Amino acid sequence: MGQAMVDIQARLKAMEEWLDLRTRCPWPEQQRYEILRSVVLFGHSPAERALETGVPRASLYRRVRRFKELGMVSLFTDVAADERPSRPSLPPDMRQFIADLKAEHPPFRPNEIATICELKFGRRPSPHAVQRVLADGPPPSRMTRRYPPYHDIAHPADARHAVVTLHYEGWNSTSIAAYLGTSRQTVHTILRRWVEEGRFGLDDKAPGPKPGVRKAGFRAVAAIKTLQKNALLGEFRVSAALKQMGIQVPPRTCGRIMAHHRALYGLGQHIKEPKEKKPMPFAASRRHEIWTTDIRYLDTPLLGQQAYCVTILDNFSRAIVASIVSPTQDQTAYLKVLRDAVRDHGSPERLVSDGGGVFKANAAMAVYAALGIEKEQIAKRQPWMSYIESNFGVQRRMADYAFAQVASWPELRAVHDQWVTDFNWQDHWAHRQRQDGRHAPAEVLGFVHGRVWTRVELDRAFRFRSGRTIDRHGYVRYANWRLYGERALVGQPAVVWRCGENVLIEHQDIPLTQFTVDVVADTRLIRTVKEARLFETPFVSPQPFLPDLGDVEWLLAIRMRRVARRRQRGVTGTQERLFPLATDAS
Asked: If 374 and its partner were Cys, which of 350, 383, 399, 526 is the partner (CB 3.0–4.6 Å)?
């Protein structure tokens, strides 16, 4: 520890001496000598001397080496050129070429000249060597230009040939454009035509539109790329979506742009299997002649539970007359959709479905009979006979990508409603050849209705539906029970559907709760409630739930006590007058 302190003090003393000595040496040559003197004469370490004087160690080693080679001459910066160590020089022809090149185009930088020399002589000089040649090299052998400015050349083909020649010699596009007095875009265009077409690219082209010009702008291309993230959308469906956004792009143009995106960004392509086209047995000739209905399972992995889409389609216009997403696929969900369709569009003449039990149950058949609808069924294992199967194929391409992203029922309903709107108002393939300008299903359906029914008549036909009001505790009274609906909807109207053993309570077409019940035969009374199910809703009560109450059970269904009717007493006799009237006394 003591020796280290001594070394540090000695070094600090040496630094003070050097600072004092430097002030006494006015000449730079004398200062350089004083830096080297202790190393050269007394053999001190260059590393220690570098720390004492503040000179970089590498510089000090280099100065010592030069001093040993050249002596005192190395201390002077103004040494004559013949006294300096000789450096390897460039060949005379290269030195003359560098001088001529700089005279022909003065804006050349040393590295550009080095690149051109490398292509011509096979040897690349350093930029410093080029600068030395330009400083003390030979004079230029010519002072004229090889090519006049671009627009002064008589034949355009010769002008393009000059661009290609200079590029072949190693000139970059900026230097070529500056030398010939044209733009870099012109130079790039000429070189691209040369690469693509060879010598034929130097000839003049016919004026007018060039082949391959696209009508789609940047906005359309960006929209197509966004829609193409759903790999199931084809060119026609993308064109229809763009038309809805106010962008007119033909389907074939969409297909070419989508192919370019697949090659550029690696977007997937859905490969269709060839299918034999068959005549449709339930083709309609007018609006609301034939409806088709079916239920489709939706793939919603983030939702955490099953979801179904119940849809009714008009065969003639291909318009969706009613559709909902439901957590169940029971009789109640189907009758809700059927009632909405008849309420908004009237009843059709015929209704087609597959062999599902909800479509041919007694409750559904009773509704068909009350509304005068003829029920028909497609052949077994022949789904192609149903128009709604193709509709579900369109739904799979348009909406399944969004269905897979939803995580709650409100999001799922919003995505479903948006799909129904897009499907009804986008161009449909079946109407592409119509001459009246109506290419969307909603445009073809128009204002035409089927057989219109009043609200009272609908309530009579759908006798399984009844209206209720949610009380202050969130329950509705139905038959001899109080069934829970939603405590955030106190005083709001609710609808109770009962089909078989299922009772569903909803508000504004949003299911709240569903109960499985045991009904007393030939009555509307409920014997027991077997199972209760709460659905996720967007309605939130301002009063949060109380803390856990231990063994206290929250009852979703409460049996009501039956109250006996009050008996009326019969007439037993007539009360006689207690006092005589005034007229009797007179």
From this structure: 350
